[in-house]
Structure formats: C-alpha cells, structure tokens
Amino acid sequence: RLAKHLGGRKVLNLMISDVPGDETHIIGSGLLSPNPDLQKPLSEAQVIELPNWADQLLNELPAETVQAPAMTDACFNTIDTYVIATIKDAKQAAVTVAQSLGYEVILHQEIIRGDALATGKELAHTLRDSGPALHIWGGETTVRLPENCGIGGRNQHLALAAATVLDGSSDCWLLAAGTDGSDGSTADAGAMVDGKTLSRGSLAGFEAEKALAEANTGAFLAASGDLVRTGPTGTNVMDLVIGLRSL
C-alpha cells in the first residue's frame, strides 16, 4: 500500500529487473505497481490450503489490508515507472564486449530456467556440439536440495553439471555466475569450468556425481580451482552463462 501512502505525489519509479518477463508488479514485490492478477478470480489450481496459523492471521487482519487495490486507484496515476536494467541489457553488453575482442557470438534469447542439473548438461551439449563461437545465455535455474546438503549455489550446480558433459574436451569453457556477485550459500558468484574440471576435483578426492547429488558443488569447485569470486556488484539482473568453443 505504498502507492496510497504517497498520497498522489509525483513519483519517478526506476526498476532493475531480476525476474523473467520484467513485470513491474513482480519486480521488488511491485510496491508502486498495480497487480493485474489480483483483479481476477483465482482458478481452482491457484487456490492453496494455508496452515491454520496463517488462516488465523488473515482472519485477524483489517479488511482493507487483505483486499487488493483496484486497478483504477488514483494513487497510481502520478507514478511513472521505468524498467532501466534487465538481463537483456547484461547479455547485450556481453555481446558488445565479446565482438570487440573478435569473437563470433551466438546470443540465446530464451530465458534459462528449471533444474540447474538438467540445464547445465543441456547448455554444455549445445556448446560442445557447436562450431567455434561464444555463447551467451541468461536467466535463473533452481536446485533440488537433499535433506542434508553441502555448500554451493545454482550457478555452481549448473557449472559442475556442465563439466560432466565437457569432461575431456580441450576446446570448451563455461562460466555461470550471478550478476549480483553471489550464488547460493557462498560468497562466490559462480564458477568457470572446462574439460579438466572433473580430473582436478578427482585429484582432491571429490566425485562430481556425488557432489551434485549432495548439493555440495561449492566444495568440489573449490578443490578443482574453478570458483569465481567478484564480490557484490551492486545490481541484480539474474544470472549469466557464457560458453566458449574455441577453434
């Protein structure tokens, strides 16, 4: 209800998007943007059963707190919203730099999402089976955590999964990193792997498949020397994955 609290004051709302689709009512929880979905009745598939304690809290809230603000509320009329940075901008910046360095670039427009393990292997196959080029992807994946997980993050998970496909290749490298400079439960942004990542980790006593199953990819990649640490970047437009297939 921040928009109503501003009381019709003129507002310039600048947004940096870290969500697929760059929808303003989702970015940063959409504090200054009306949510069109709240004006539609929920389908049966969207209705979820809340635990008793959550139901009780909702019942105790004032009605105006629970109800969605109307799309026609005048409070939004004085708010000008612009999305000023997205994953598309980050990918295009990577394209510009890569081309200035003389690389043949393949820009993948689709947003990567879904399971990090499957996605990492899929991107590695695309990289390995292509001709010489630099591939650029962007998006965010997810990791299914076991009951007792190790250290790592979705980018480290994706990178190690890719390394299992690139194992033995002498002409492929893949970087997966968060644009905010962090990844999962670690201070690392992600990792850059190659055809010798698995052998380097093995020499330190690690097994890639075991590390993936235990979500302990950070420990493996630390041992193989493939972690990437940038420190906080001060922004966040999801993750970048950059793959290079050389001549």
List the helices and strands and how they pair.
Blueprint lengths: L1 H4 L5 E6 L35 H9 L2 H4 L12 E7 L1 H14 L4 E8 L3 H14 L3 E7 L14 H13 L5 E7 L11 E5 L2 H7 L4 H6 L3 H8 L2 E2 L10 E7 L2
For the structure shown, list the relevant keywords.
globular, alpha/beta
Spatial strand order of the main sheet: 3-4-8-5-6-7
Mean pLDDT over the full residue set: 92
Per the principal axes of the C-alpha atoms, what is the gross shape? Answer: globular
- Judged by helices, strands and strand pairing, the structural class is alpha/beta
**Helicity range:** 25-40%
Rg over alpha carbons = 22 Å
State the separation between the terminal residues, measured CA to CA. 56 Å
Strand content bin: 15-25%
Poorly predicted runs of 5 or more residues: none
Annotation, overall tally of beta strands: 8
Q: Secondary-structure element order, as H and E?
A: HEHHEHEHEHEEHHHEE
Q: What about the largest sheet?
A: 6 strands, mixed
Give the number of helices. Answer: 9
How would you portray this structure in words?
There is one protein chain. This protein is of the alpha/beta class and 247 residues long. The chain is 32% helix and 20% strand. The strands form 2 sheets. It has a 6-stranded mixed β-sheet with strand order 3-4-8-5-6-7, sandwiched between helices. The protein has a two-stranded parallel ribbon with strand order 1-2. Strand 3, helix 5 and strand 4 form a beta-alpha-beta unit. Helix 5 crosses helix 6 and helix 7 packs across helix 9.
